[in-house]
Every structure is written in structure tokens, then in C-alpha cells.
Design brief:
The protein is α/β, with parallel strands linked by helices. The chain is built from seven helices and 15 strands. The protein has two domains: 133 residues, ATPase, nucleotide binding domain (Nucleotidyltransferase, domain 5, 2-Layer Sandwich); 132 residues, Nucleotidyltransferase, domain 5 (2-Layer Sandwich).
């Protein structure tokens, strides 16, 4: 998406498990090297150092702007979007977000963090990029995923954004978000992952790779013995029950309102939840929030006459 002066709008959802753009995503792990490593898949070269991107994931951090890794992830996300658009040089306007209850306090700090450099030269996957950062906007995480369908949200609606690190809850009444009823909890899918690994170790004395557990989360199955699959699915069901219990604590009543689930945790709800599918909508598009940031940035810039 472009400004009148050919500036690219690039949306980035800085998750703890995955960083998403409107068209792609990657895991948030990063390993730094002083010298060029042997294996160069997803290799970022920036300011004389080398970083392998995508191994593992970030721990929960209440202030992402205090961690330099999220700036590296921003560069990678920009590179992946520019590659999608056939560009290696661009002026870039960033659209990003923060959990609902953090936006007011941290918005300006996170914006300054993303715009810490006016110009950046770096290399990713062997391709050189030259980027001028010309601005940024920070939006409420989760809400952006339904921003383009607010006209459909009549009556009382509860939005639940389940990410890797946090779960964000917001009420939307008659197409308008209720800023007085927003909640952020440390109840993301990583909590389920940690519980599954602990249960497997306690019951069977085995360490199961994260990728296997994630496959069960996404699809409900994996090429493993039945006893392990049973344990993972039972633990996931208990986690989902905890999600709905938490929502009820925030006054969720399925007969009185509709529920919209967004974020990576939506697959857990779909595969292991018990709910009325006529009154609960699960958006399992992992890029939905980033697409929403881009949509909101476009609206803002159109209204200001910059688009």
C-alpha cells in the first residue's frame, strides 16, 4: 500500500511466538554470531553482526521496546514484505500494535523504538535492502483483526485475541469498542505449551519437540504414539476450558453475546473447545491482525489526505 509519494505501508504484528506481516510470518527466535555462520537459512546481516532468525521463540516481555530483538524482527518483516512486492529499496511507513491495555501507556515508546533509525541498510537471505523509515502508527492488538467488519458487530460482542504470550479481551457494543472493558492476561498459548511439556515429562519422562506439540495444536493430530497424542489433547482441552472460564469471569455469556476469537490460539479453540459454533466465530488467519493494522493505517492516512 502506497502514499502519494510512493511510500510503502508495511504492517507488522510483533508476536512472542511468531512475527506476522500481511503476507507472511516467521518464528521469533534469534541467535547472534560475531562471524558468518555455516548455515545461512534466514540469515540477517546488520551492523556487522549476523543473526539467524526463526529458532525458538521469545519469552514473555511486558515491554517489547526494551528488547533489541524486536527491532531485528522488524527489519526481517520489512524485508519479507518488500520481497513480496519486488523491492529492495523503499520508504516505509510502519503499522504495528500492542495489547489492548498497553496501548495508551506504551504507544509513544514503542513508536520511537521502531523509528530509532531514519535509514537502515541490511542484508537478509543474501539480498541487500536499503530502507528509509518515514513514520509509524501503533494500534490496539486484536481489535485490528475485526476493524474492517465493525458494521457486522451489532448488539453485544466479545473479542478475544489469544496470542503466544497474552490473551486480550475487549467488548464491542453496537459496532463500537468499549474502552472501559478491555483486559490483558498472561494466558497465551505458550502457557499451554509449557503445561503440555511438563505433563509429558511427569507421566512418561520424555521431552517432546515443540514442533510436534504445535502440530497437534494446529491440526489435532501428529505422527506420534496414541498415548502421547491423548495426553497432549487432554491437556489442550483443559487449557481451552481455562480460556472459557476466564471469559466467564469477564462476564461472557454465550446466550447474550457473540464471541469472536482471533490470534494463534484460535486453532486450539477450534480443535479442543466445546462451544456453540453458531455464536462463536474463530478467525484462524495468522496474518489477520497485521492485515488489520494495514487497514487502520490506510484509513487514518486517507482521512489526513496523505493517501
Amino acid at each position: 500500500m502506497l502514499f502519494k509519494n510512493k511510500t510503502e505501508i508495511i504492517a507488522i504484528d510483533h508476536g512472542y511466538g511468531n512475527v506476522k506481516t500481511a503476507h507472511s510470518y516467521f518464528r521469533t527466535g534469534v541467535t547472534a554470531y560475531e562471524k558468518e555462520p555455516v548455515f545461512k537459512n534466514n540469515l540477517l546481516e546488520y551492523e556487522g553482526k549476523y543473526y539467524t532468525i526463526g529458532e525458538g521463540h521469545k519469552e514473555f516481555l511486558p515491554r517489547k521496546q526494551n528488547d533489541g530483538d524486536f527491532y531485528l524482527f522488524t527489519l526481517v518483516a520489512v524485508a519479507m514484505e518488500l520481497e513480496e512486492r519486488g523491492l529492495t529499496e523503499a520508504k516505509v511507513y510502519l503499522a504495528a500494535g500492542l495489547p489492548l491495555t498497553w496501548v495508551s501507556e506504551q504507544k509513544e515508546q514503542f513508536k520511537a523504538y521502531l523509528l530509532q533509525n531514519d535509514h537502515v541498510d541490511f542484508r537478509f537471505r543474501g539480498v541487500d535492502y536499503s530502507v528509509d523509515f518515514v513514520g509509524a502508527d501503533i494500534f490496539p492488538q486484536g481489535f485490528s483483526a475485526v476493524a474492517d467488519r465493525l458494521h457486522e458487530l451489532k448488539g453485544t460482542n466479545l473479542l478475544c485475541d489469544i496470542g503466544n504470550g497474552t490473551m486480550n479481551v475487549m467488548y464491542i457494543n453496537n459496532q463500537k469498542p468499549d474502552g472501559t472493558k478491555c483486559f490483558t492476561e498472561k494466558f497465551g498459548t505458550n502457557q499451554c505449551m509449557l503445561t503440555v511439556k511438563e505433563v509429558l515429562m511427569r507421566k512418561y519422562n520424555v521431552a517432546v519437540d515443540d514442533s510436534v506439540i504445535e502440530e497437534v495444536f494446529r491440526t489435532g493430530k501428529a505422527d506420534i504414539a496414541d498415548r502421547f497424542l491423548f495426553t497432549i489433547t487432554q491437556t489442550a482441552r483443559k487449557y481451552v476450558e481455562g480460556i472459557f472460564r476466564s471469559l466467564r469471569e469477564h462476564e461472557y455469556h454465550p446466550d447474550l453475546m457473540r464471541l469472536y476469537i482471533v490470534g494463534g490460539g484460535g486453532c486450539l479453540i477450534k480443535n479442543f473447545g466445546v462451544y456453540d459454533r453458531n455464536r462463536v466465530t474463530v478467525n484462524d488467519d495468522i496474518c489477520a491482525t497485521a492485515k488489520g493494522y494495514e487497514y487502520l493505517a490506510r484509513l487514518k492516512l486517507e482521512r489526513s489526505g496523505e493517501l
